[in-house]
Structure formats: structure tokens, C-alpha cells
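input
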Amino acid sequence: MERRYASHPNEVKRFDTERLRQEFHIPKLFTPDQLELVLTHEDRMIVGGAAPVNEAVKLEVDLKELGVSYFLERRELGAINVGGPGIISVDGTDYELNTKDCLYVGMGSKEVLFKSKDAANPAKFYLNSAPAHKEFPTAKTTLAEAESGALGSIENSNDRTIHRFIHENGLQSSQLVMGMTQLKTGNMWNTMPAHVHPRRMEAYMYFDLPEEAVVFHLMGEPDETRHIVMRNEQAVISPSWSIHSGVGTSNYTFIWGMAGDNKAYADMDAVPMKHLK
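output
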């Protein structure tokens, strides 16, 4: 498991492209039959992926990294499948996940295994894990079952649908919030006008991008913006003080995950367009 440290905005505005990507960009999430994890000190979120093809992938790390006897002893986990049909086994109970289905795994779950139903069309499980202080039951939801709503307009190139999976009115958690935003064809912008939420960090994972397409992910303080070029199935860490927005060369889908002081999706501080620099 790779470790990333928290950064101060005064420091970040001096980063060049390489350093910016080194600190916030996560280029590899899905390696066949392996677990890829990055621990960020931003609210101690773990971002990663499990890509079972020919064998099951187990949720495990060097436990010295977490100071516990098993991964979810004091953590919770959200998993969203962005690949073919798969199975997540939690302490012997199997949960089948089709593409864009979500599973919340509660604190105290000891054995978590990720499996594909067809090696020719393997599952890809995108993972977010946050520290937990209360145990909630493991539960699944589908894209059709999620709380969804339309936002934006074609006139502003941001006509999109937001699906909320793990949140205060959906799958219950200690502090983890996760969902998915799908941009309609011909739309490229997300989360603009921008906002920050100083009470929690966020991570984005962009996918459903054509091979040659990119997303210019905007970050930084509103008056000191920077960008990171993102490609398909890559993630980015967003500190609580940073905006998190993007524009693509095509439409795309992204998963957002948050951890911090509350689970209120709408708890954000809007940034007027005139303040962006």
C-alpha cells in the first residue's frame, strides 16, 4: 500500500506538474489478480482497486500500516464495480455485483474476497475505505435503486445525473459517502460552478472514457487553480481546501467518495465564478 501525505495549500501552489501528479494523481487502480491501494493522510482515506481475473483477490495489507489485526477492524469500505459481473464475499456471504452496483462493507468484517464471474469479462472493483467509529451492516445497492437526480444543462455542457449510493439517506455508514455522476453525450463539465467543503476530503475516479480522451481535473484554492490530466480508470485525491472539478474531451462517468466530519451530501461552500483564477 502506497502512502501519501497531506499538503498545505501554500506549498501546493508551488508544485510543478510532476510533483502535483506525484502527490494527488493515482494512475493505476486495476492490475489483474492484484489489490492496488493508496493511503492518503487526507482524512486517512484509502483509495484503490481490486481486479480479480483468474483468482480471488483478498482485502489485506501489511497490518502494521493500520495498527490493527485485520483490515476492517476499525474501518469501513465502499466498493463499486466498473467491470463485468463479479462477486464480493464478506465473511462467507456472497454479494453479486453487476457493473455500477455498489456494496458497503461494515466495520468488523474480517474476510473480504473479490471475484469475477467470467475471466473473459472480469470485474473491476473501485474501493474507498475510511476510519469508522460505529458498525453498520454490510449492504448492497444497484444503480437503479440509488437516489438519483438530474443536474446542470446542455447549454452549460454539464447535463448530468448524480447517483448517491452510500449517504445519509441510502446505505448507512460511519463517515464514508460514495456515489457516481454520469455525464450525458455532448456534455464535458462536472462540478462547475465549483465548490469546496472544508469539513471533508474527496476522491474522484474517472472512467467510461474513450482511449484517446482525457479529463482536465481542476484543483487548488479558488484563486490558485491547477490541473491534472486524467485518463480512463484513474483517480485523484482532493484535499478539503481544494476545488474539484473537471472538463473532458468527451463525456465520461466518475465516482466520488468523501470522508470527514459529516455525511451531508449538500454540505459545501459554493465558489462564485468571479473568484476563480
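quick obs: The chain is about 5% helix and 45% strand.
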